Batch of 2 targets.
Target 1
Amino acid sequence: MSATDEITRARAAGDPGGIVAPPAAWRQVDATVGAHRDAGAGHRCLELHVPRTFARPEPGQFVQLLLAPPAPVLLPRPMSVASVSASAGGLTLGFLYAAVGAGTQALAALSTGAVVHVLGPLGRGFPLDVAGTPVLVAGGRGVAPLLFAAEAFARRARRCELLFGARDAAHLVALAGATARLESAGGRMHLATDDGSRGLAGTVVDLLDRIAPRLRAPLVIHACGPHAMLRAVARWGLRHETPAFLAMESVMACGTGVCRGCPLPRSESARTELARRRDRIPSLYGSPEFAMCCTDGPVFAAPDLDWERIH
Ligand SMILES: Cc1cc2nc3c(=O)[nH]c(=O)nc-3n(C[C@H](O)[C@H](O)[C@H](O)COP(=O)(O)OP(=O)(O)OC[C@H]3O[C@@H](n4cnc5c(N)ncnc54)[C@H](O)[C@@H]3O)c2cc1C
Ligand code: FES
């Protein structure tokens, strides 16, 4: 079965990488900060306890974190869910984040017991039912949602290969914990660093070139990391007729499809598909040129975006 057939079948099964977003299950709740610790290389691990009214997020979905006033930022900040576990009264959601600006730095200052408003779960996650050996391709902090995916694959008795790349060994963020989590999910870790300080000397796509021929075909790729890496992984998937699903990011305001502030350029084939299904698509989801990262994604099938126009 070709990659296109595979994606068409996946679309038919649940519309991942398709056009129409599934019904939203999100709500806004007050969460309390649990464990919150340094993860190295400027990153932090955060746990938030949410009440049982909050729907269980799927791997690849995200939440909007809104800091309680007084806060230095007005708008919420999007964050990928890195783990979910049951806890007294609800769920504990895990996150791995970099404190890069005013919002995430204020988040980093929160202590156990502080309250954060959480909107979610949002967006479309990784389509875990697409057949093939799962190859998870991570760049830097992108490893976190992919570990969550590896655990979901393990529950489906599917073993993952995780290819983890960074600029140097120090930026293989939270590597020890990631390796332990992956091993308990029955997966295997493969490393690459640009400077060769750990694993293969080269990019994670060089690593993909090296590892892919040794794996049982067909492969299915799920990737999370910087856009330049995702573009290279998408092109690799298209070149090798291998389904590839990429967790994209954009600056976001609402996270729910309303503000139209998180556009990503659709590919020509996606624009054609949209035109064909025009009559069945609610107007909110109908921009012919641009997909909204928050509702059409954040996970996109490689053929659905115009990688020439993604930076
Ligand atoms: C779906 C999704 C999931 C995300 N998951 C994570 C995660 O798991 N961990 C994590 O650390 N971050 C994640 N991010 C990025 C995170 O939301 C931003 O880093 C955060 O909003 C920055 O807010 P700030 O107020 O600290 O910085 P700002 O002052 O708002 O921005 C600081 C700098 O970061 C840039 N920036 C802001 N948002 C983004 C973005 N989305 N992509 C690229 N550059 C950006 C700004 O242009 C600016 O240069 C995710 C973003 C999206 C859209
Ligand atoms: S963030 Fe508002 S439409 Fe996506």
Note: The radius of gyration is 19 Å.
Target 2
Amino acid sequence: MTQEKYVLVVRNLKKTYGNGVQALKDVSFNVKKGEFIAVLGSSGSGKSTLIRTINQLIPVTSGQIFVAGNEIQTLKGRDLRRARRRIGMIFQHYNLVDRLSVMQNVLHGTLGGMSTLYSVLGRYPEERKQAVLELLDDFSLRDYAYKRAGELSGGQKQRVGIARALMQNPEILLCDEPISSLDPITAGAIMDLLSVMAYKNDIACIVNLHQVNFARQYASRIIGIAHGEVVYDGPAGTIGHRDLERIYGKQIPLAGNMLYSTGEAI
Ligand SMILES: Nc1ncnc2c1ncn2[C@@H]1O[C@H](COP(=O)(O)OP(=O)(O)O)[C@@H](O)[C@H]1O
Ligand SMILES: [Mg+2]
């Protein structure tokens, strides 16, 4: 099967919402193990819908999604849970439980692999906690392990979000605008962390971004979406003015200045 060399295959994906909006028209692409892909597109182009359909947070209208060779829509019960565990999620607003400690938030990432009894009792085996502490150490967050997540800065919260996703040992990380709420310096630090962790663990990353400069700096490949259609799928290094114009529907300066950002407005 050709699918097997890819960790993710998206084929003829269409999503029409109940209100009639065609958010994805006919999207197809394949993702190799460990690939780092930035998804670019104006607001409303369908980036979040793409991520949510891949993770089955919302049902597709038609098309197929294969995760590690398994068509995810046909899976049920334990097989579906197993397939979902291969996919980690990172969100713009972190989706942490603010009143719980950093440790508890990250331990939640291991839930998929744990009996529900542990989660109900809120007790986890010592070796899990040890593994979390080691990960937090790598993320310069060890001193925050028993602080409430709500007390952390945005950059720290996103590091916790990444740690939580990694605890689930994913093969794919789906990141929906992971740096849109952060200042440019913190955003760069988060992209550094994400790309290093993905590389070290051979995780394929699909990252929705608003910043062309970050996409070119960190991704090896860019998928550009306009009005629910893929209008660019190619190397990040050689994306040109015309490609960006097709993606954004207007001229975007292809900056030598690495701090250039398309901003929230488009
Ligand atoms: N739950 C929803 N119900 C109806 N329409 C939606 C819903 N979510 C998104 N849309 C519409 O689908 C299109 C794509 O949205 P989205 O995937 O959020 O784009 P992006 O993440 O690129 O900003 C937009 O026109 C948006 O208004
Ligand atoms: Mg979005």
Note: The CA atoms of residues 41 and 225 lie 5 Å apart.
